[in-house]
Amino acid sequence: MSGRTSPKVAVLMGGLSVEREVSLSSGRECAAALREAGHEVAEIDARADLPARLAEAAPDVAFNALHGRWGEDGCVQGMLEWMRIPYTHSGVLASALAMDKARAKEAFRAAGLTVVDSLIAPAAMVSADHVMAPPYVVKPNNEGSSVGIHFVHAGDAPPQLDAGMPERVMVEAFVPGRELTVTVMGERALGVTDIVTEGWYDYAAKYTPGGSRHVVPAQLPEEITDACLEQAVRAHRALGCRGMSRADFRWDEARGLAGLVLLEINTQPGMTPTSLSPEQAAVAGIGFRELCAWLVEDASCDR
Description:
Blueprint: E1 9-13, H1 20-36, E2 41-45, H2 50-57, E3 61-64, H3 75-83, H4 92-99, H5 101-110, E4 118-122, H6 123-128, E5 136-139, E6 150-152, E7 168-173, E8 178-185, E9 188-196, H7 203-207, E10 213-215, H8 222-239, E11 244-251, E12 260-266, H9 276-283, H10 288-298
Parallel strand pairs: 1-2, 1-3
Antiparallel strand pairs: 4-7, 5-6, 5-7, 8-9, 8-11, 9-10, 11-12
Helix pairs in contact: 1-10, 5-8
C-alpha cells in the first residue's frame, strides 16, 4: 500500500453472479463504514469494464465485497494480482478451492476434518434416477448462499433439475441436526452461532429480515463449542484462507461430538444487515467499522 495514513479504497460490489443483489447490499454497508473510518472510498460495480474502472480510480486497496462466481472464486483475485492492487480476503488458490465444494472437501479430509459424504454427477443422471440413497441434497458445486438447492426425502422421486443448474452437480448426503457457523478473523475464531429457522436456511432465510433467528453465542455443550472453534480455524488454514472466512457445520445432538460435520467454508462472508459474521464480530467486541477497517489493513497482494 501507499504511505497514506488512510488508504484510498475501492469497494468491489455487485458483479455478475446470482448473488449480485446480496453483494450490492454488502458493498454499500462496507463503503459507509469505511467512510466513517476516514477512508476515501470509490464504489465500483464489478462488470466487464472492471479493470478500466480500477485504473481510473487508482485505489491503494480493493475491498472485495463480491459474492459467488467471478468475485469469490479466484477470478477477480487473479486480476488484482496482475494489476498489483492489494486486496482483502483470500487469495487466488484459497478462493478457487473454497468455491469448488468437492475439492475443498478433499483438502478438509486431508486435514483430518469430518465432512459430508458426496459425489459429483451429471445433472441428467441425477434427474433420471437416485444416485444416492435418500435423503440427500442436490446443489451446484460452485455457488454459495444456498443457491440451487434441492432436497430429496425418503420416498421422493428423483429431483427434476431446471435448466439453470450446471451440467454436473453435487449430490450430498443429508445431515440432520442444528445449523452452526463460525467466523474466523485472521487466526481467531470469533464465536459460534446457532441458526434457527422454520425450515431450510435458504436464500430467503439468509437475507430477509426475520427469516431466521441467530443465537450467538450458541447455547451448546462446551466440547461442541470448542470443537467448532478449533475446526473452523483448521478449515481456514487447510485452504490457505486469509482475512476473514466463515465455516458452516451441522450438528446431530444425538451423536454428540461424532455428530459434528463440516459442510463448507465461505471466503467472503456476507456483510449485510442480516449477515452472520458482523454479528459474531459485534458479540466479540469488534464493531462493524472496526471490522471493515481491519480487513483494509490486512489487505495485500500475493495472498
